[in-house]
Each structure stands twice: as C-alpha cells, then as structure tokens.
Design goal:
Helices cover 10% and strands 50% of the residues. It is mostly beta strands. The chain folds into 3 domains: 107 residues, Immunoglobulin-like; 97 residues, Immunoglobulins (Immunoglobulin-like); 100 residues, Immunoglobulin-like (Sandwich), CATH 2.60.40.3450.
Length: 347
C-alpha cells in the first residue's frame, strides 16, 4: 500500500513537470535579430529597407502563425517575408523628407499550442536606432586648371538643388547623379587659389581648394575648337538633359586599373572604387562600362572619368547578399578587368 502511494506521487510529479515544460516552452524569449545597418545612405526617394530575422524560440509555435510588424512613429506596418531566406522579414519605409534618424522596434504576433489549446502571443524587440548619413564628398577630380576646364565633384547624397561655389561666386554646374556633380572652371582672376564648396538651402559643404591657372594659347585654341567642332548632340546626365558639342575622348594606350581590386562589404554598407585610366582624359567625359553578374547585390551609378583627370570614382552599396563579379572596360580595351564582389548579410 505504501509503495502504491509512492508510485502515484511520483507519477503526479512527473505529470506536473511535463506540463510546466510545455508552458515554459510557450513563454520562451523570441529571437529577433535586427539586420538593418545602423547608418543608412540617403536616397532621393526617402525609402529605407528595414530588415530583421524573426523566429520565436518556443517549440510549440503554430506553423505559419507568425506575423512580423515594424513599429515606427507610432504606426504599425506589416513586414513581408523575404523569399528564399529563412525567417527574414523586411519593410520598405517611406521616411518623411528631412528625417535624419529612424527610431523603431519590432512586434511579432504568433500562436502557441499547449495540449491542443491555442494561445496568442505578442513579443517585442528593444528600441532600434538608424541614422541617415548626410551627404559627404570624396573631393575634386583635379586641384588646378584653366578657366573652362571640366571638373567633377565626387561623393554621395548630392541632389539637383546643389550649387557649386568658388569662394562666394556661383559656378554653373551639372547634376550627374547622387554621387557626382560636374562644373566648368569659372573665368575668375587666375594664378589664385579658391575655396570650392557645394551647397543647397541648408548650407554649404567645403570640398577643397582649386587653383585657376592662366590659359595657354594651346588650351585657348582647344577650347575654341571644342565649341565649334561638329553639330551639337543631346546628352542625358541623370535627370538633367543638356546640349554639348560633339567631341571625342582621347584614345588610351595601356590598361585600366581599379582600387581596391576586390569588393567585400555587408548589406547597406558602401565602398568607394577608384578606376584609373593610363592618360588624362581630354574632350568629353569617358564612360567606364561596368557590368555585373549579381545585379541584385550591387547598387552603383555609372562611372565617368572627367576631362583633366585620369581617375573616376564611384560609391558601391551592398544590396542582397551574394557572390559574383564586376566587369569594367574603358573605350578601346580588348577585355574587361574582373573585380570579385562579396556582399555579406549584416549579422
């Protein structure tokens, strides 16, 4: 009789332990990994992709019951599951103009089954902060030259509202892309240094110093020929269309080189590639033809080497994780140079 009581007590204890294990499994802390970069590159659309890996740790989660939401500015947005990536969700957030910081968190809703009884659960992530990095500049494609020479400003975050100044003198410029603005050296007093800045309504950003050299007879003749050589052709540069004379780029003898020779970045991170041609470009800007076998992983604008320089720079941003190559050719080259590319996830 005594042994029977001990047996029943032991069985009751094991049953309670099993039930507790099931309940505790349903209360496990969820795994929410923010895959969004803490620094985001500004873009003209003000659209930023917020990404997270979300998987509740409970063993009794009801299949396909997980709903992931992005909570930002007091509003909830349902996130979309990314195809072919396990437990990864994303949302394209349209940020208000002028916002420099995103503060948000993740909410997940799901169901658990305890002995056939369904219960709804909500879990939250800690507060997340992402800073939208403002524009910056890499510099000028040349540090000196005569009036009329074409010079490029390279960087990121440029807009069509930006203006170029030599000291306080407004210089006519062309918006090429968010990474490039070009201008002609103004006809200001030569043999002097000028502070070059780029600005819009909020203020100016100093780029560097440019020295205007006296124009030589040869350069004056070349400039004169540049405005009379052949019929005008329409050239599309970004969102702005201008009319320029039909000019040719000086043929290059030698090989195109690039630095760095390999790209290794994470999602949403950026790196600057410098393409170098053998001789300085004259005439029209030289387009470096760059293609890739992983278009979903590489985000970059067109690459130009502007007259007076032999270097063209471009900012490359990591898209979806992937491994592949960039293929770059300058006009007249027989075969492209191959640049290995690896884009890794944020985590």
């Amino acid at each position: 009789m005594q042994n029977n009581r001990i047996f029943h007590a032991r069985s009751f204890f094991l049953l309670i332990s099993a039930l507790a294990a099931i309940v505790l499994a349903g209360c496990s802390t969820p795994s929410i990994t923010n895959m969004t970069a803490p620094s985001l590159t500004p873009n003209a659309s003000n659209i930023y992709v917020i990404t997270a890996r979300i998987k509740p740790q409970a063993s009794n989660v009801v299949a396909d019951s997980v709903v992931a939401k992005l909570i930002i500015d007091g509003n909830a947005y349902k996130m979309t599951k990314v195809p072919r990536l396990a437990n990864v969700y994303e949302y394209e957030f349209h940020a208000p103009a002028g916002v420099s910081e995103l503060r948000y968190y993740f909410l997940i809703e799901y169901q658990v089954s305890n002995l056939g009884v369904l219960r709804s659960r909500n879990d939250y992530s800690p507060l997340q902060v992402a800073t939208i990095v403002g524009r910056d500049t890499l510099g000028l494609s040349a540090s000196r030259g005569p009036a009329g020479a074409r010079v490029a400003v390279t960087g990121r975050g440029f807009t069509s509202q930006d203006n170029v100044y030599f000291n306080e003198n407004l210089v006519p410029s062309t918006y090429d892309s968010a990474n490039s603005i070009s201008f002609q050296v103004p006809a200001l007093p030569d043999s002097q240094n000028y502070t070059v800045s780029i600005g819009d309504a909020p203020g100016k950003l100093v780029i560097g110093t440019f020295r205007i050299d006296p124009a030589s007879p040869d350069s004056q003749q070349a400039a004169s020929g540049m405005h009379t050589a052949g019929p005008a052709i329409a050239t599309s540069l970004g969102t702005t269309t201008t009319t320029t004379p039909a000019v040719t780029v000086t043929p290059q003898t030698g090989d195109l080189t690039v630095s760095p020779a390999e790209v290794k970045i994470r999602q949403s991170q950026t790196i600057t590639l410098m393409f170098m041609v053998p001789q300085k470009v004259t005439g029209a800007p030289m387009l470096i033809d760059v293609t890739t076998d992983i278009p979903q992983s590489v985000i970059m604008p067109e690459v130009f080497v502007h007259p007076g320089s032999n270097v063209g720079s471009v900012t490359v941003e990591g898209g979806r994780p992937g491994t592949g190559h960039l293929y770059a050719k300058m006009p007249g080259s027989a075969k492209p140079i191959v640049i290995p590319v690896t884009v890794q996830p944020l985590n």
